[in-house]
Design a protein that fits this description.
Elements: E1 6-12, H1 14-26, E2 31-34, E3 47-52, H2 56-64, H3 66-69, H4 71-75, E4 83-87, H5 92-108, E5 111-118, H6 121-125, H7 140-173, E6 182-188, H8 191-202, E7 206-210, H9 219-232, E8 237-240, E9 254-259, H10 264-275, E10 282-287, H11 298-311, E11 316-319, H12 327-338, E12 342-347, H13 352-356, H14 359-367, E13 373-377
Parallel strand pairs: 4-5, 4-7, 5-6, 7-8, 9-10, 9-12, 10-11, 12-13
Antiparallel strand pairs: 1-3, 2-3, 8-13
Helix pairs in contact: 8-9
Amino acid sequence: MQPDRFITIAIHTYEKAHQLKNILECEGIEVALQNVNLTNPVVSSGIRVRIHECDLPMALRLIENIEIFSPEAVRECPDGGPEILVPTDFSTSSVQACFLAFHIASIHKARIKLLHSFFDPIVANSASLQLSDSMTFDGTADVVEQIEEDKTLTEISKKQMKEFEAKLREKIKDGIIPPVMFSSEITEGLPEEVINSYSSSHHPFLIVMGTRGTDKQNRAMLGSVTAEVLDTCRSTVLTVPESLRFKRTDEIREVVYFASSKQQDILALDALYRLFPDCALSVNLTSLPTKRKPDGDPAAIANLLDYCRKNYPAYTFKSVSLSLSHEMEEFEGLDKELHVDMIAVPTPRKNIFARLFNPTLAHKLLFHSDIPMLSIPV
């Protein structure tokens, strides 16, 4: 291939040729236009868009997904169709979650919404915004200072999101993540409240979020945010740890499904099957032991196993058991044996984790096992 040789990749009208030229040049590709009618260029047709031959692979990737790399197209992302919500704080785990979300979105031809929220704890604890008897705000200087602080936080968030979007387009351009339409939203508020509010109004078919934040020392707060979303959100939620064991959905192999021993298991497993239709998953069914059933519910698992093998032929199914006294240790042993890629749990509307397993085990599985968890509302 001759690096200095120019080739024609498209022939457009004057306006469209310049639009394509601007997009390619923004991505670092040198572009030359030919056959421009210098007397009346605006009405000229048949303008050749030419680039270096060595830039052809990248240029084709950009042209095939021009709506992603065109800012106007991103802002005008069409309504309707499936959407995946990706809350992000720009931490390592949320970046991992975002990359995985792109792969899932590509399978389902879905678009992605990046959601970032910022919260100033001073606002919640401030006593300066108290109305006096004359119906005016006390602490005017504090109010002005707080407004300025809010503007700063907003601008910082916008800058971070803009940089994050640029990185995503670079990953798409380099072929690291699949081309998927995405847009972003920035808002002020508590993360769990912002996520739940968006989910309630927009109904994404999946939420993909990281389980570690930028402040790793404050894991209790991070855990409470994730747990709150899992407990209250009625969308399917996939939590992604920082040390993700796979990069693409087709690399998922071993899944442990914690059954509730109810009809709801069928709904949850059907949702799992539809979410990963092209993955040859090996699903390990287990019912967590309780004081009344210290050995779990083997009969219910056997019936569920038979049902799954008949109705989900693309997956393989087997049963595993955990004991009440050593469930976490046995799960860790199971993980070492199988190299578990994902945990899946059905989440009923009320008393979600209490009906599945004790909260201590739930917390350990969520925040100490470093395994993605899929929470499926039923």
